[in-house]
Amino acid sequence: MGNSNSSLEFLPTTFILIGIPGLEAEHLWISIPFCLMYIIIFLGNGTILHVIRTDTALHQPMYLLLAMLALAEVGVSASTLPTVLGIFLFGTTEISFDVCLFQMFFIHSFSIMESAVLLAMSVDRFVAIYSPLRYTAILTLPRIFGTGAVMGLKSIMLMAPLPMLLRRLPFCGHNVLSHSYCLHPNLIHLPCGDISINNIYGLFIVTSTFGLDSLLIVISYGLILHTVLSITTGEGRRKALNTCGSHICAVLIYYVPMIGLSMVHRFGHHVSPLLHAMIANAYLFFPPVVNPIVYSIKTKEIHRGIVRMFSEKRARV
């Protein structure tokens, strides 16, 4: 009996990725919007990074944090690009076990970093509104760069155990995933062994990063609102709230799809696979596509920098 059970347990050499369930015949056409989204992501976020890097007037905490956000979003998108376009353009649905774990590590690491940057941006807005005269003294450039380094290191250290925890589990013939990329909530449903440790550690990561970050963001905005209400003039209140508009949009754009995906993975066992795929794609693609557009339109300094950059290029031509 023991030999029979052990023969069923194996570490898969490959996983099978799924594109859009039920629309396999249309994958080539579906590749068009995905290609357009990747172009927008890399051009949009790349432009913001270039403008902030080249314009010394933007070497301030708010814009450096925005550069970190753009970098994290580029990282998430670059992690998904090979398998997403491989499926829709070339019909390549197989991914090796180790590469899948590698992709999962980077997708979640950059996602954790993105959440941490959004928290840092909310603290930045609070300091700017609560103590504007001490803003540059509190949020110095060394502190901002140190914060970025800590956020990156934290993401790597938290995610490092997950691939090792998955490698120790038996899969017993289950190797078909639900998405075009490897996500831990999807991978953890495939093993046939005891996954309690993986579930506990996964829950710890979620609560200590996304859960804690979102709670602290809410607290930050509660303090911001309290500070704004203490401003005597209506014009002053309006200006203070306007500085938060882009960041509030970024927070909603990031957390709403993530909450939807978490709910589907936890409770949507009878939900259509198509809905699973659409929500997962919204979680990974919506923020990096929309955020560059929002910040380019709503942040005057970024908008001016982009206009200046294209004006200079046109003048050279």
Distance between the termini: 77 Å
CATH class: Mainly Alpha
Per CATH, which architecture?
A: Up-down Bundle
Query: Total helix count?
Result: 13
Overall SS class: mainly alpha
Shape: globular
Q: Please trace the helix and strand order, writing H or E for each element.
A: HEHHEHHHHHHHHHH
| Whole-number tally of structural domains | 1
Radius of gyration, CA atoms, in whole angstroms: 22 Å
The H-level CATH homologous superfamily, spelled out, is Rhodopsin 7-helix transmembrane proteins
Low-confidence stretches: 1-7
What's the main sheet like? Answer: 2 strands, antiparallel
Using DSSP, what is the number of strands? 2
Task: Compile the SSE list and pairings.
Blueprint: H1 2-8, E1 14-16, H2 27-54, H3 61-90, E2 94-96, H4 97-130, H5 135-138, H6 141-159, H7 161-167, H8 184-187, H9 196-229, H10 234-242, H11 245-267, H12 273-298, H13 300-316
Antiparallel strand pairs: 1-2
Keywords:
mainly alpha; Rhopdopsin 7-helix transmembrane proteins; two-stranded antiparallel sheet; 2 strands
Q: Your description of this structure?
A:
Strands 1-2 form a two-stranded antiparallel ribbon. α4 runs parallel beside α9 (196-229). It has 317 residues and is mostly helical. The protein has a single domain (14-308), classed as Up-down Bundle (Rhopdopsin 7-helix transmembrane proteins), CATH 1.20.1070. The protein has helices at residues 2-8, 27-54, 61-90, 97-130, 135-138, 141-159, 161-167, 184-187, 196-229, 234-242, 245-267, 273-298, 300-316, and strands at 14-16, 94-96. It is built from 13 helices and 2 strands, in the order αβααβαααααααααα. Residues 1-7 have low confidence and may be disordered. Belongs to the G-protein coupled receptor 1 family. The chain crosses the membrane at residues 28-52, 64-90, 102-123, 135-160, 200-224, 245-268, 274-294. It is found in: Cell membrane; Membrane. Its main location: membrane. Residues 44-295 form the G-protein coupled receptors family 1 profile domain.
